[in-house]
Amino acid sequence: MENKKVGVIGVGNVGATLAFNLATKNICDEVVLKDLREDYLQAMAIDISQAANAANASTKVSSETSDFVNCDVIVITAGIPRKPGMSRDDLLLTNAKIMTSVIDEVKDANKDAIYIIVSNPLDAMVYTALKASGLPKNRVLGMAGILDSSRMAHFIAKKLGTSQGKIKTSVMGGHGDAMVPLVNYCTVDGKNLTDLLSKEDIEEIVTLTRNGGAQIVKLLGNGSAYYAPGYSASLMVEAILNDSKEVYPCAVLLEGEYGYKNITAGVPVKIGKEGCEEIIELKLDADQENEFAKSILSVRELTDTLEEKFFNK
Ligand SMILES: NC(=O)c1ccc[n+]([C@@H]2O[C@H](COP(=O)([O-])OP(=O)(O)OC[C@H]3O[C@@H](n4cnc5c(N)ncnc54)[C@H](O)[C@@H]3O)[C@@H](O)[C@H]2O)c1
Ligand SMILES: O=C(O)C[C@H](O)C(=O)O
Q1: Was 247 annotated as part of a binding site?
Q2: Locate the Lactate/malate dehydrogenase N-terminal domain: which residues (predicted)?
Q3: Does 128 reside within a domain?
Q4: Which among 154, 175, 210, 300 is annotated as catalytic?
Q5: What pTM value is reported for the model?
Q6: CA of 26 to the centre of ligand 1 (A)
């Protein structure tokens, strides 16, 4: 790619954190921001541009509508976050409306873009984005698996009292309470997690991982996590722009993989300049297959609701 350009729609907590990472680390040549809140949008563009200057990074940051064209990657974080006591699923219809409207606004001027969806409920928003854009499945990916895996690694490090950075984890399925942390694929410094911790400790880590988003929502009281989500999204952007073929867990449309069709959920994906270039089919044991089935079912309930109350109304 010649001039690498990334559009970020929604520059609230996650979008601004993402844009800050992209700009200060020179991950692309241009970042273009878009939001409903005009003054806030401009403030973010100026502040992040100044941060890039402080970092001696050459990335240009803009909030001009006329610049929101020919993006290579568009990340959508526009939408409302949940509040304490809410589930991500409670955001379904509000955020589906926002998702559809922002895609309608940008799709014609950004015909080659790969979309990364962040808004919640994540898997249902990927489904919505696919329908709203009419794009092939490889060009719409959802960010959640990297975040959930990073949470699992955090809880393992805490439990073992070990240094971070040596822990490999992977979480599949929908980004909801039924997500599937893949315990037998976790290693710490090359050693299997199952050889390092008891069954009870591992179960506790799985529960903490599943509740990781809610834990932060409760502590914040008004909003949800953004540093880890923003950073996780920047890894996906980087993999696309650099055509790195990195494998990350991402939400994509399944068309027979893992035995499911016409449903979006998190699976390991090889990411390159075409977006999702391959879905990796891991061998799951019987328990994991059951958990994945439950997770798929919870996403299916949301996409059925969308079909009934949003797309066919
Ligand atoms: N996938 C994940 O793992 C993950 C992680 C964190 C947050 N999220 C989700 O991401 C979304 C954003 O979270 P946040 O913390 O950044 O929220 P936020 O409220 O800080 O930011 C959302 C931004 O979207 C903007 N917006 C709303 N409607 C818009 C529209 N039509 N056009 C342009 N901009 C619009 C708002 O003005 C706001 O600036 C939420 O739905 C949240 O649940 C997902
Ligand atoms: O928990 C949320 O609502 C936000 C996000 O999905 C997260 O996991 O941090």
Answers
A1: no
A2: 5-142
A3: yes
A4: 175
A5: 0.98
A6: 24
User: Ligand 1 center to residue 241 CA distance, Å?
Assistant: 23
Q: What is the CATH number of the domain that holds 180?
A: 3.90.110.10
Q: Which domain holds residue 21?
A: 5-142
- Output the six-digit token pair for 15: 């979008």
In this structure, the answer to whether residues 20 and 127 fall within a common structural domain is: yes
> Does one domain contain both 27 and 130?
yes
Which of 302, 182, 173 shows the shortest CA–CA distance to 250?
Answer: 173
Helix (H) or strand (E) run with residue 86 in it: none
**Which pLDDT tens digit goes with each residue over 199-240?**
999 999 999 999 999 999 999 999 999 999 999 999 999 999
In a domain, 313, yes or no: no
| 68-78 residue pLDDT tens | 999 999 999 99
Instruction: Mark whether 73 and 154 lie in a shared domain.
Output: no
Q: What are phi and psi of 71, to 5 degrees?
A: -75, 145
ipTM of this complex:
0.99
Residues present in the chain in total: 313
Q: Is the peptide bond before 121 cis (omega within 30 degrees of 0)?
A: yes
Residue 300 assigned to a binding site: no
| Tokens of residue 135, six digits | 């794009």
pLDDT of residue 1 exceeding 80, the answer is: no
Catalytic-residue membership of 175:
yes
Is 117 in the same domain as 152? no
